[in-house]
Amino acid sequence: MKIFNYKGIEIDDADIEYLKHLQTLYISLDGAPFSVYNYVNEYKFLEWIKSGGYGKVFLAQHVLTGEKVAIKQINVSNLCKNNYSH
Fold first, then answer.
1. Using one digit for the tens of pLDDT, what is the confidence trace for 45-79?
2. How many domains, in total, are found in the chain?
3. What CATH code is carried by the domain that includes residue 62?
4. Which long-range contacts (C-beta less than 8 Å, at least 24 apart) are formed by 9-15?
5. Is 15 in a helix, a strand, or coil?
6. In whole angstroms, what is the distance from residue 64 CA to residue 58 CA?
7. Which of the two ends of the chain, N or C, has the fewest CB atoms closer than 10 A to its terminal CB?
């Protein structure tokens, strides 16, 4: 898995403390390089599904294909607190 900031630059654990609140991040689950075709902006958020300790899950639909997917919005500040509180 790779995580990228909004500019397409890969980030790692050392970068987490510098992330801004509500900053959009992009994740490549298969480790593929960043692609402009993976932007969340390609999706229309339809409804909130569920909230948890790390964020919220939304039902979304791809604008061009109409495919419905679940998108998880992660609260990075909670993630940082949990990782660095030990």
1. 999 999 987 788 999 998 778 999 998 887 766 65
2. 1
3. 3.30.200
4. 9/34, 10/34, 13/83
5. helix
6. 18
7. C
Are 16 and 10 a contacting pair, CB within 8 Å? no
CA atoms within 13 A on the CB side of 17: 4
What is the DSSP secondary structure assignment for residue 34, as one 8-state letter? Answer: P
What CA–CA distance (Å, rounded) separates 21 from 75?
A: 8
Range of 58's domain?
2-84
Q: How far apart are CA 9 and CA 25, in angstroms?
A: 10
Give the CA diameter of the chain. 44
Note the Cα 28 to chain centre separation in Å.
10
